[in-house]
Amino acid sequence: MTTGSSPPRLFPIFADLRGRCVLVVGGGTVARRKVAALLEAGARVTVGAPALEASLKQLADERRIEHRRGRFDPNWLNDAWLAIAATDSVATNRAVAEAGEARRVWVNVVDDAGQSSFQVPSRVERGPVQIAISSGGGAPMLARHLREQLEIQLDESLGALATLLTRQRARIRARWPELGARRRFFERVLRGAVPSLLRRGDHAAARETFERTLAEDASDSRGSVALVGAGPGDPGLLTLRGLRVLNEADVILHDRLVSAEVLALVRRDAELIEVGKQAGWHHAPQETIHALMLEHARAGKRVVRLKGGDPFVFGRGGEELEFLHAHGIDFEVVPGITAAVACAAYAGVPLTHRDHAQSVRLVTAHCRDSADALDWRSLAQERQTLAVYMGVAGLPQLRERLLAHGRAAGTPFALIENGSRPQQRVITGTLAELPEIAQAHSVVSPALLILGEVAALARELHWFGSEPLSTVASTSADRARESLPQAA
Ligand code: SAH
User: Fold this and answer.
1) Residue 186: its H or E element
2) How confident is the model over 10-46, as pLDDT tens digits?
3) Which residue CA neighbors atom 18 of ligand 1 most closely?
4) Distance 445 CA to ligand 1 centre (A)
5) Is the pTM of this model over 0.85?
6) Architecture of the CATH domain 157-215
7) Are the C-beta atoms of 90 and 66 separated by less than 8 Å?
8) Ligand 1 midpoint to CA 342 (Å)
9) Tell me: the pLDDT tens digits for 68-97?
10) Which of 366, 426, 448, 464 to mutate to test the pocket of ligand 1 (most atoms within 8 A of CB)?
């Protein structure tokens, strides 16, 4: 028995109650609901109570349940695998819970998670498919709400589909003994016409299509690579297409920039390989990444190359595709929400607000070479927004060059660290003090700089995470000027 304030961590199981005795204590309407569910699961139900309400009484008369008349007696638990206490007497419910505990019989006290050693989840059923939802017992209304949403989303045909696959299980295994091939077969079925035929109620055509798919050779056992953008960190910003491709992957090569929350969404049995660094590409083992993609794709695997943000925005996605193309490997690309777009949204910075900017430029200036190659004169122009990637280490020279080419010292900036993640920080100020302010707040990677009049709007329009931080005292700024920012 647990009575803490935080919900216990429960272990979900689906119990086979067929022919097993379950005791329900209480003879009212709550007991009736529980008895109905237990009978549906094939349990042998005994109801213990001084008296039964009408429909329970009828069940007892029909010998579909057994009635033990009287007040609760711990011996009622003798044959029971489970017990449910559904009386309106707190004392009786507690007596059942305590007797159950002593005899190692799992007891659920209706609407009292603290007294219960097991709980009955909210559930959604589609034929043999059952989805059980628990809030740990503390927020049953929330679980119920989730259940309603799932009821809306999950198609009725799911039950028919599960039944079909269950019946054909042995044949499927015999046809595709190897796990990977079997999984691909299932995906062909699930993404093919069978579900929609079942949805339309055309079982004959569904069966025919199923048979054809089973007979077919797995023509797509050729490996392939999908370049997928994982977005900036918030898993809600991954695209649906990205999620589906991840669900089909055998191997996932991901950057460190990809958040743990996104990685938590990938299929459990996919092989996850971390490659590359968090930011910058000086020492990125690009050849290793190429070699890994090639090796796994040639072995017939479905490889996902998962990158932070969008794969084509400073992500070396282009080079990877050129490599795959040169080696004759099939590929596809799933875009992601790039850091500039995500950070702007999550910091309340409308990148091209019509009062302030006519264009937005995505640039990187992470090292001297890349900085030298930039057209600073055009970058310093007014009425445009700069989104600078991988810029934390290059802030002093960025300021120097923009000022030298005429950008006003008072141009606002917003530095967004860990954009869209729970630990997001937004730091604002003006170009004049940019490196010092970044240094004073110890900005770390990943961080994106947005420079331009629109950046000032973050102070009004921020909505996510904590308030934007702003200017630091000039003394610490002066001190910071001595040692320039290191992080990148
Ligand atoms: N392909 C990625 C960018 C890779 S370069 C994209 O489209 O977003 C890595 C740089 O992206 C980082 O140094 C940082 O400037 C920026 N970045 C990526 N994710 C970020 C995040 N969650 N918050 C702030 N900046 C981020």
Assistant:
1) helix 179-191
2) 899 999 999 999 999 999 999 999 999 999 999 999 9
3) 339
4) 8
5) no
6) Orthogonal Bundle (1.10)
7) no
8) 10
9) 999 999 999 999 999 999 999 999 999 999
10) 448
Q: Which of 47-51, 57-61, 234-238, 277-281 has the lowest mean pLDDT?
A: 277-281
Q: Roughly how many angstroms between the first and final C-alpha of the chain, as a whole number? A: 51
Q: Which of 262, 306, 389 to mutate to test the pocket of ligand 1 (most atoms within 8 A of CB)?
A: 389
47 and 58 Cβ atoms separated by less than 8 Å: no
Instruction: Tell me how far apart the alpha carbons of residues 419 and 425 are, in angstroms, rounded to a whole number.
Output: 7
Centre of ligand 1 from the C-alpha of residue 233, in Å: 10
Q: What are phi and psi of 253, to 5 degrees?
A: -100, 110
Helix (H) or strand (E) holding 425: strand 425-430
Which of the listed CATH numbers 3.10.20.30, 3.30.950.10, 2.40.10.340, 3.40.1280.10 matches domain 341-482? 3.30.950.10
Phi, psi (degrees; rounded to nearest 5) at 109: -100, 120
Which residue in the block uniquely carries the two structure tokens 């929350």?
261
d(CA 446, CA 420): 11
What pLDDT does residue 218 have?
Answer: 60
Please tell me the residue having the least CA distance from ligand 1 atom 2.
Answer: 309
Q: Is 57 a catalytic residue?
A: no
- pLDDT band at residue 5 under the 50/70/90 scheme: low
Measured on CA atoms in the order 268, 16, 146, 84, is the torsion positive or negative? negative
The pair of structure tokens assigned to 232 is 């900036």
Extents of the domains making up the chain: 21-120, 157-215, 224-337, 341-482
Backbone angles phi, psi at 266, to 5 degrees: -80, 160
CA of 308 to the centre of ligand 1 (A): 7
DSSP 3-state of 444:
coil
CATH, domain range 224-337: 3.40.1010.10
pLDDT at 251: 94
CB 450 within 8 A of CB 385: yes
| R_g over Cα of the chain | 31
Centre of ligand 1 from the C-alpha of residue 416, in Å: 10
What element of type H or E holds 90? Answer: helix 90-103
Among this protein's residues, is 255 annotated catalytic? yes
CB under 6 Å to ligand 1: residues?
232-233, 257, 279, 307-310, 313-315, 338-339, 343, 389-390, 416, 418-421, 445-448
Q: What is the pLDDT of residues 201-213, one digit of tens each?
A: 889 999 998 999 8
Average pLDDT, the chain: 89
C-alpha separations of 49 from 84, 88, 95, 266 in Å: 12, 11, 14, 50
Confidence of residue 222 (pLDDT cuts 50, 70, 90): low
CATH-assigned architecture of domain 21-120:
3-Layer(aba) Sandwich (3.40)
